[in-house]
Amino acid sequence: MRRMSEWDLRKLRILRTLRERGTVTATAAALHMTPSAVSQQLTNLAAQLGVDLLEAHGRRVRLTDAARLVLAHTEPVFEQLERADAALAAYAHGDAGEVRVGAFPTAVPALVVPAVRALRDTHPRVTVRVRETEAAEAYRLLAAGDVDLALSLAAEAPGAADPRFTHVPLLADPLDVALPPDHPLASAPGLTLTDLAAEPWIYGGSGPWSDITRRACEAAGFRPHQGHSASGWTAILAMVEAGMGVALVPRLAADPRAGVVLRELGADGPVRHVVAAVRSGGAAAPATAGVLDALRRVADRTPGE
Length: 305
Description:
Layout: H1 9-21, H2 24-31, H3 35-49, E1 54-57, E2 60-63, H4 65-93, E3 97-103, H5 107-122, E4 126-132, H6 135-144, E5 149-153, E6 165-179, E7 200-202, H7 208-219, E8 225-228, H8 233-241, E9 247-250, E10 261-263, E11 271-279, H9 286-301
Parallel strand pairs: 3-4, 3-5, 7-8
Antiparallel strand pairs: 1-2, 5-11, 6-9, 6-10, 6-11
Helix pairs in contact: 1-2, 1-3, 2-3, 5-9
């Protein structure tokens, strides 16, 4: 078996990406390679290390125990390389630099844009490039190196024990219920989700928001009847305004001009938790640290629970 000093980090990154993406085809797409090139690189790595890294699993392949052992021991190496990159950037550029931020749609206007505005005064040499993405996809982009900082929902985040990422809690975003203006319960005192158990609900057919709505209603003791399916807040609120149903709306996405009644559900109401994440070691970069600090400050000023 080869010594650690002779291991090929590029091939190890390919193996790491395969663990994350699950298939050779998806790994190739993430790394802008061909599937045959991915397979060849992993075959070469197995020969270098002297162990089998992949095994057949139906029509796919999966990592062997040896491959998982290799990755467990190389995660600290990847983290240290991130720290080295951050130290070199600080040495060469001080607090200047470009930070690529991936954020889910409602976080962009509510958190990212105010943070960018603040950075113009506090860190004028930091450039932020924003990429709107779904909450779960943000972590795939972060792992692949396509963004430097990801804003996501805690429910979509990998486990806290995942060594690839450092998580920074930002805020708890309460979920309010949107009702048509003429709904009989629009002004009822002490409104709860249970009061709306018989209503048609409007939410996406799949994805995190569908899961959040179902979980919140089930925790209140009922399974929501999905009257209509939509994923964009403009469409959802327009249907609520038209009296087609009710919907849960995160406070970050609430629009007082939407023509609906937004009712708070109290201290026991459902919330979603918003987190920022960087690759382990990446927070040491001055530019990234500046963006994280700006996001924290905006989150602290954002009305919540």
